[in-house]
């Protein structure tokens, strides 16, 4: 059977599964559903994992024409949020994979990056510390991806038949965006802050638990975290809702004086980079008012929006078709 699920983790490994402590990176694959059963996962070496995933990406059909780029398949990394133990993370990943990446019309392959969120109701502050330290581990993954893309770009320039057949995209949820924020800065610094190669084609920041002025540098190069993300991504889409009470708690606990990006959207007093935009998902969520922080992954209309964003459909088209609310 072909590999169906892919997982990278910096959690410690036990007989029962992956734990809540940080450890070295490990790589896992599975061929069957029911991913919260640890016995269904097989551990592989990092080199084997990368070669196998690259081999799958190489089987994707090439775009017949430049105008058909929206139909190009993806390799997507999914980074989960806070208060997720290992089983919570793989269940969310399995569900998302089925909705966006499975079947003949699927977007391609999705890879889970699961970090040591404590999975505790009162674990917000420990999770934030874990997220900060996990940034370097995710940066290792992104750096390897950057090098692979650079090699594919050079090979494709010499022989178009060897060009990369997959887009790269990333979906981060909740505090997973804080992991990403730290990882992108490390990766960008390691690669001498390049301005020419997009590491990620489409970045989806879902209910992001980061400051809403993250991209305040605008088109200026200030070498901050938002600058790193904006320069390493072709387009960044922020999904937010004022109904998110979890992020209201988050803002209250930090007392940093800034609202949460996933609750308030982009700071309207800042001139953000042109490749960053936000979508107020409140009209797509109502009349539900509970569980909003994670409801994005359950609402068919938001899943449809995610799919079209990842495909690279222009933001004005998304609004014009009613996939994104008119105030986006």
Description:
The protein is an alpha/beta fold and 328 residues long. Helix content is 38%, strand content 20%. Strands 3-2-1-5-4-6-7-8-9 form a 9-stranded mixed β-sheet, sandwiched between helices. Helix 3 crosses helix 4 and helix 4 (176-190) crosses helix 5. The longest helix is centred in the middle third of the chain and has 35 residues, at 124-158. The mean pLDDT is 88.
What quaternary form is this?
single chain
Q: What is the CATH superfamily label?
A: Alpha/Beta hydrolase fold, catalytic domain
Number of domains: 1
For the sheet with most strands, the description reads: 9 strands, mixed
Count the DSSP helices.
11
* Uncertain stretches of 5 or more adjacent residues: none
User: How many angstroms separate the termini?
Assistant: 43 Å
- CATH class bucket: Alpha Beta
Radius of gyration (CA) equals 19 Å
In the CATH hierarchy, what is the architecture at level 2?
3-Layer(aba) Sandwich
Let me know the number of strands.
9
- Helix percent reads 25-40%
Structural class: alpha/beta
- What's the pLDDT, averaged over the residues? 88
Strand content: 15-25%
Shape: globular
| Order of strands in the sheet with most strands | 3-2-1-5-4-6-7-8-9
Quick tags:
single chain; 328 residues; alpha/beta; Rossmann fold; 9-stranded mixed beta sheet; 11 helices; 38% helix
Fold blueprint:
Layout: E1 5-14, E2 17-30, E3 42-44, H1 46-58, E4 74-79, H2 86-100, E5 108-114, H3 124-158, E6 167-173, H4 176-190, E7 200-206, H5 225-232, E8 233-240, H6 245-254, H7 261-264, E9 276-280, H8 282-285, H9 292-295, H10 300-311, H11 315-320
Helix pairs in contact: 3-4, 4-5
């Amino acid at each position: 059977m072909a590999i169906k699920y892919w997982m990278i983790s910096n959690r410690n490994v036990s007989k029962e599964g992956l734990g809540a402590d940080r450890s070295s990176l490990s790589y896992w694959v599975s061929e069957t559903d029911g991913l919260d059963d640890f016995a269904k996962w097989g551990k592989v070496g990092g080199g084997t994992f990368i070669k196998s995933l690259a081999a799958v990406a190489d089987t994707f059909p090439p775009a017949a024409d430049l105008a058909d780029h929206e139909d190009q398949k993806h390799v997507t990394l999914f980074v989960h949020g806070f208060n997720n133990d290992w089983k919570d993370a793989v269940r969310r990943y399995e569900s998302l994979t089925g909705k966006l990446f499975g079947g003949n019309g699927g977007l391609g392959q999705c890879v889970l990056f699961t970090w040591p969120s404590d999975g505790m109701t009162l674990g917000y502050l420990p999770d934030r510390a874990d997220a900060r330290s996990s940034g370097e581990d995710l940066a290792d993954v992104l750096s390897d991806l950057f090098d692979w893309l650079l090699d594919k770009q050079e090979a494709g320039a010499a022989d178009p038949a060897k060009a990369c057949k997959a887009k790269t995209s990333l979906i981060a949820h909740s505090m997973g965006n804080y992991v990403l924020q730290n990882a992108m800065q490390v990766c960008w610094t390691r690669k001498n802050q390049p301005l020419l190669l997009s590491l990620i084609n489409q970045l989806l920041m879902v209910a992001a638990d980061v400051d809403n002025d993250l991209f305040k540098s605008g088109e200026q190069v200030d070498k901050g975290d938002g600058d790193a993300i904006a320069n390493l991504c072709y387009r960044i889409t922020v999904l937010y809702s004022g109904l998110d009470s979890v992020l209201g708690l988050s803002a209250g606990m930090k007392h940093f004086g800034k609202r949460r990006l996933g609750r308030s959207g982009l700071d309207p007093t800042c001139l953000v980079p042109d490749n960053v935009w936000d979508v107020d998902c409140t009209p797509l969520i109502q009349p539900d008012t509970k569980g909003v922080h994670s409801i994005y992954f359950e609402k068919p209309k938001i899943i449809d929006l995610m799919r079209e964003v990842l495909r690279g459909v222009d933001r004005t088209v998304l609004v014009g078709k009613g996939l994104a609310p008119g105030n986006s």
